Structures are given as C-alpha cells and as structure tokens.
C-alpha cells in the first residue's frame, strides 16, 4: 500500500481562491439549509463514509451530518461521537506548554537545551532551538525523526516510537538553518515532552489541568471506552483503520474527542473564561511567521485574513482514519469543526470549513 502524504499547507491555493471570489450575501449567519445541502452534495459526489459538522454561533451549538460514523451498522454521527482530531492536537499542546512555561517563569524564546537529558545536551547543534520555534515550526527539525521506521501497510506507524528513540535521535540531529516555518510533527511532539519534563506531570494530566477541567470541556457521560459512540475511521472506502497509539508523538496528533468537546474548546479560545486563560490565549494567537500575505503562523494556530475582515484562526488534522478542520473568530464565540472519517480528505474538510466561516463573515 502506497502511503499518501498529508500536508498542512496543501490548502493554501484553495483557501485563497475561495475567499477572493465574490458571492451574493445571504445572511450574517450560515444557513442550516446551506450547510446541510453542502454535506449532502459532498456525500453523493465523494466516496466517503460520513461527514460531521459542528457550528457555534450566537451562543448556540448546531450539528449537521450525513453518511455514517459506523457504516456497517448504519450508526450516524452525533455531537458526542468520538473521532481522532489529528494535528488539531498541536493547538492543545501549545496551550499546555505556554501554561507550564508561565507557571515556571520561563520565556518561550530561550533554548530548550537545558531541559533535555544530559546525553542530549552534549549536542550543541540543538542549542538554537527555542520553545517558540517548536510551536511555530521554525526549529529546523524535520517533519518526522529519521530513526522512525514507517512501513507501508502499517496502520500504527507511531506506537513503537518512544522517548528513548526520540532522545537517541536528538543526540545526533543537526537542525537545518532555515528559519522559515516548515511543518514538523517531531517539533510539536518534543514541545509536549518538554512540558512534561519541566512540570513533572504526564501530558494527559497537563491537558486536564490547563484545558479540560478549567474549560469544563470533558463530558463525564461520554467515554472513549463506550465503543458504541466511537466513529470508525477508514483508510480507503473499504479499509478500516484502528485509532492511533502514538506514545511520545501524542502531543503532535493523539487527541480523541467529540464535536461538542471541540466546540467548547474553540468557544473558550474565542472568549476566554478568565484573565489567566486570556493572557495565555493572547500569546498563542500572536502571528510569529508569515506563509503569505493572507496566511500567518502563530503558536500552533494559523491565521487567515482578508482585507477588512476579522482574522480566522484555524488548524486541520489527519490520521489514517480521519480528516479534520477547526476554526474560530476571536471575541465572537463563532467556531466550526468539520470531520470526515476517512484518510486524506482534507480537500473536503478544509474547503467546507472555510466556506462556513466565510458565511459567518458575510
């Protein structure tokens, strides 16, 4: 099986074309009929198991779906259906790392070297890497570590890559001198590992402490162990995939969640619950590198902005079973999440997500 590559920025041309075109203004809010019609049209045209869209607007969550979360038993998506968020996880990791640095009175512009094992600290080539450069992908680290063995047909590509292998790689790596933002799963995984080392707490505990519990995101009635409410991912239209076990790479893409939980997260990113959270979010949303005149990189989050239009903060994600998109507009409590339970369908999720956001801005 030949693996296709998922690239975060593959949507650049499509996004620019989408927002540069003119269209008739229908409403200040995306119409339910408009969203459902888009979903139904995509489902008929593309060979995909199902689509789930969650929209937050005017203080309310609305959900739209077509196809199936579990095609074999004809079970549809709902607001509590679990899916793999993929690289949207990176925005959670940036929030966690920035919070840990704040609590330990550390700047994100300092070198990461002193916070790594002694054996890694001997590699002075990584002294140039800062916490910020991990979050905005300017560290010079590659997309994946070269000692990670990826085999065609392996549906669990990350489960055997642990901290021992990560530190073994960091002892020898020579980051590129390129200071442009070049997407690195390895860099964001390392950001999560450093948050663990500085805080002395596991990544999952840090998510609870800084995001899930204070934002009241976790729904105690919904558990991943409840397999009846778990979406089935597909590599092709007939080939099922298991949820990824990501070990040390989890901070780069290991989050499993529901649309309701994701919309709660996006709502609080848009309108923070308190001054401490607001201060962290303000830092996270500062542009730090430019990909084009319209697209910039913050700390994990990306921005898209047209002239005289509000900034859209967004990120997408992909695993071997899911393609996802999440976006929000600051201070408005407007957000969208799009999920397709099939690999490499970000041309669907991203375009649909931006079309819905565009409707919100009309």
Keywords, please?
362 residues, alpha+beta, Beta-lactamase, two-stranded antiparallel ribbon
Could you walk me through the main structural features you see in this protein, from its secondary elements to its overall organization?
With about 350 residues, the chain is an alpha+beta fold. The radius of gyration is 20 Å and the shape is globular. Helix 1 packs parallel to helix 12. The protein has one domain: DD-peptidase/beta-lactamase superfamily (Beta-lactamase, 3-Layer(aba) Sandwich). Helix content is about 35%, strand content about 15%. The protein has 12 helices and 12 strands. The longest helix has 16 residues.
The fraction of residues assigned to DSSP E strands is 15-25%
CATH topology, by name, is Beta-lactamase
User: What number of structural domains do the residues give?
Assistant: 1
Radius of gyration: 20 Å
Quick overview of this protein structure:
By secondary structure, the chain is of the alpha+beta class. 34% of the residues lie in helices and 15% in strands.
């Amino acid at each position: 099986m030949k693996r296709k590559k998922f690239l975060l920025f593959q949507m650049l041309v499509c996004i620019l074309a989408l927002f540069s075109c003119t269209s008739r203004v229908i409403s200040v809010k995306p119409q339910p009929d408009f969203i459902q019609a888009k979903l139904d049209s995509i489902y008929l045209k593309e060979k995909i198991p199902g689509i789930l869209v969650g929209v937050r607007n005017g203080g309310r969550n609305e959900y739209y779906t077509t196809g199936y979360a579990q095609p074999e038993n004809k079970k549809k998506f709902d607001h509590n259906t679990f899916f793999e968020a993929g690289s949207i996880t990176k925005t959670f990791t940036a929030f966690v790392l920035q919070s840990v640095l704040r609590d330990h009175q550390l700047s994100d512009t300092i070198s990461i070297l002193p916070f790594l094992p002694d054996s890694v600290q001997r590699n002075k080539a990584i002294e140039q890497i800062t916490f910020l450069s991990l979050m905005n992908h300017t560290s010079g680290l590659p997309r994946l570590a070269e000692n990670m063995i990826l085999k065609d047909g392996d549906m669990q590509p990350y489960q055997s890559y642990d901290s021992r292998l990560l530190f073994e790689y960091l002892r020898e790596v020579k980051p590129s001198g390129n200071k442009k933002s070049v997407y690195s799963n390895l860099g964001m995984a390392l950001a999560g590992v450093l948050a663990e080392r500085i805080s002395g707490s596991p990544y999952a505990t840090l998510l609870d402490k800084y995001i899930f519990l204070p934002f009241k995101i976790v729904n105690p009635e919904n558990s991943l162990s409840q397999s009846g409410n778990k979406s089935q991912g597909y590599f092709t239209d007939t080939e099922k995939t298991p949820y990824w076990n990501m070990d040390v790479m989890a901070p780069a893409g290991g989050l499993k969640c529901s649309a309701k939980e994701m919309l709660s997260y996006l709502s609080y990113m848009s309108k923070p619950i308190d001054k401490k959270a607001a201060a962290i979010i303000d830092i996270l949303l500062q542009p730090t590198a430019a990909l084009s005149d319209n697209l910039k990189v913050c700390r994990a989050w990306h921005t898209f902005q047209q002239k005289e239009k509000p900034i859209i903060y967004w990120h997408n994600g992909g695993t071997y079973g899911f393609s996802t998109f999440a976006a929000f507009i600051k201070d408005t409590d407007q957000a969208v999440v799009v999920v397709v339970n099939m690999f490499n369908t970000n041309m669907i999720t991203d375009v649909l997500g931006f079309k819905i956001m565009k409707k919100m801005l009309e």
